[in-house]
Amino acid sequence: MAPGPVRPALDEIDLHILRLLRQDGRMSHAAIAKTVGLSGPAVHERVRKLEQSGVIAGYCAVLDPELLERPHVAFVMVTLSEGNEFASDDPIVARICDEPDVLEFHRIAGEDCYLIKIRTSTNRAMEKLLRRIRSIRGVARTRTTIVLSTELERPTIEVPSDEEPEPEPQQPLRSA
Questions:
Q1: pLDDT for 88-109, tens place per residue?
Q2: Are 70 and 104 in contact (CB under 8 A)?
Q3: Structural domain tally of the chain?
Q4: Helix (H, G, I), strand (E, B), or coil: what is residue 105?
Q5: What is the pLDDT of residue 176?
Q6: Which residue of 28, 29, 118, 122 is most buried, as measured by CB atoms within 10 A?
Q7: Do residues 80 and 142 share a domain?
Q8: Of the candidates 137, 133, 122, 125, which has an alpha carbon nearest to the alpha carbon of residue 76?
């Protein structure tokens, strides 16, 4: 098994910069510099390195789906027909990912092959999207769970702590 990506060495200032940008991706380097106690050019260089290393993967505006008429959310489990599992699924994946109302696509272990998150304008639009997905050659079935309400939806992950968790204390062995 190939090792995963190597996390660049991040100091407390890098982590602080990441927390600030996570909170406000449009924060100026000057404002960040004032908060973290560095010069603007030093912050600029650190942000550039965080971008180059891939720690900062990009910037985006977080859009309100309700205001943009995409209130209907569902999670769809997709099962492939025999012989169309992961080894030859690239055309299926591409077709699903090309759908503009597909927000997330995950290969999963278990009874189903994929978990996708969709967001549509109406239930009718959701039905049409599901029909298109079911019509893809190699898709055996879909199972859909419609979201009634969302209590938490984070646009990105938390910035990890610089501190390593302390190991659990070991219980002494008792002899019989």
A1: 789 999 999 999 999 999 999 9
A2: no
A3: 2
A4: strand
A5: 47
A6: 118
A7: yes
A8: 133
